[in-house]
Amino acid sequence: MLKLSNTVFKRINVISISFLVTIGIFLNLSASSVRGLKEYNDNFHLIKRHIGSIVIGLIIFNIGKKLSKEYYKKLASTGMLTISAILFLVLTYGVVAGGSRRWIDLGDVNIQPSEFAKPIIILFIAYHLSNIESDKSDFYNLRKALTLPALCSILVLLEPDFGTTLTISGIILMQLLFSEIKLRYPLLILALSPIPTYIAINIMGYRNKRFSIWYDKICEGTNIDSELLADECYQLFQSKVAISSGGLFGLGPGTSRARWGSLPNAWSDFIASIAAEEYGFIGLLLLIIGLVSLIISFFGLGLTSGDDFIRLYFVGMGSWVLIQTVFNLGGIVGLLPITGIVLPFIAYGGSAMVAIFIGLTMACLLYTSPSPRDVEESRMPSSA
């Protein structure tokens, strides 16, 4: 019988990431080619940037895996203060695009600091919740761990970026659930979460309208109002057209019709729709299996580590992929509102790709060090 040890989860993790990054390159090669030709007169402009982001991420990963766990612990508070300050500057000096101020202009490249907040918050929460001061109250430890991450969430919401705020909030809640903090505290936060969610949805008119249309299922069925079909329901309708046109086995690699302009953001928010169109239900299913395997491996690596800090860090990483996968796949078929959340390791987005590779740098702690369970098993005499 296969033992789900730390080593098994390592292998699943590496295979899943390799598969998702590879299929992401092929999907972006097709999905981004038309936009590259129209805007840059180069079919390969966006895919070259996509691959460049992967290369940068791999370089950071290979540097990061040489550092020690203690170095990351020391970096946690400094990184949290730094990203908080940067997010504040984004609200003042950031680049406005699509009605949001989310980016910092670095010449040829715009970076999105809210993406880099995710691995830093995961690190910060993991550090503080694994170093609970036993002589202090749970409320004190929670306040110490959550004050700066909560501030970052508010700053991201003000950009506004509701999708990233949801992702960060979900990650924090999952880390709390797997920590040594009494269960009543994360459950209380979960019970109260509809209140700030309701406020966040209603403070922005477009967000309230989008949520109401989803909740009332206005874009469902065949008798959709023509004005809605040309506006609020357009993306969802075109996404469903792309998915359904793929059938079981797809139209074939590079043959997507949606990429020619009918489906906005085909290379990012709706990359899974392109996968279904070109590779069919089978291709989309394989993509989902890869994502689910990655999520399981992250949680498995954490729960078999025997170290509170590493456990909470990998729970954060698994939650990151889980939340974005659920909201993205749910959004493209209308089960959830469209939030602009992308699929990790697959969709186009330089900041998102580099950020998740930064998050992976902590993986070296498990890739290079055996878990207590593996050490114990290695000491057991082998049967003849």
Write the layout of secondary structure elements.
Layout: H1 6-31, H2 33-40, H3 45-64, H4 69-93, E1 95-97, E2 100-105, E3 110-111, H5 113-129, H6 138-157, H7 162-177, H8 184-192, H9 194-202, H10 205-215, H11 226-229, H12 234-245, H13 271-303, H14 308-332, H15 350-360, H16 364-367, H17 372-379
Antiparallel strand pairs: 1-2, 2-3
Helix pairs in contact: 1-3, 1-13, 3-15, 4-5, 4-6, 5-6, 5-7, 5-14, 5-15, 6-7, 7-8, 7-14, 12-13, 13-14
Description:
- The chain is mainly alpha-helical.
- The protein has one domain.
- The chain has helices at 6-31, 33-40, 45-64, 69-93, 113-129, 138-157, 162-177, 184-192, 194-202, 205-215, 226-229, 234-245, 271-303, 308-332, 350-360, 364-367, 372-379, and strands spanning 95-97, 100-105, 110-111.
- A hairpin with a 2-residue loop joins strand 1 (95-97) and strand 2 (100-105).
- The mean pLDDT is 87.
Short characterization:
The chain is mainly α.
Descriptive tags:
384 residues; mainly alpha; three-stranded antiparallel β-sheet; 17 helices; 3% strand; globular
Distance between the termini: 18 Å
Radius of gyration: 21 Å
Percent of residues in beta strands: under 5%
* Count of structural domains: 1
Average of per-residue pLDDT values? 87
Shape: globular
This entry's quaternary arrangement is single chain
The number of strands is 3
Largest sheet: 3 strands, antiparallel
Element pattern in H and E: HHHHEEEHHHHHHHHHHHHH
The chain-level structural class is mainly alpha
Uncertain parts: none
Helical segment tally? 17
Relative helix content:
55-70%
Strand arrangement across the biggest beta sheet: 1-2-3
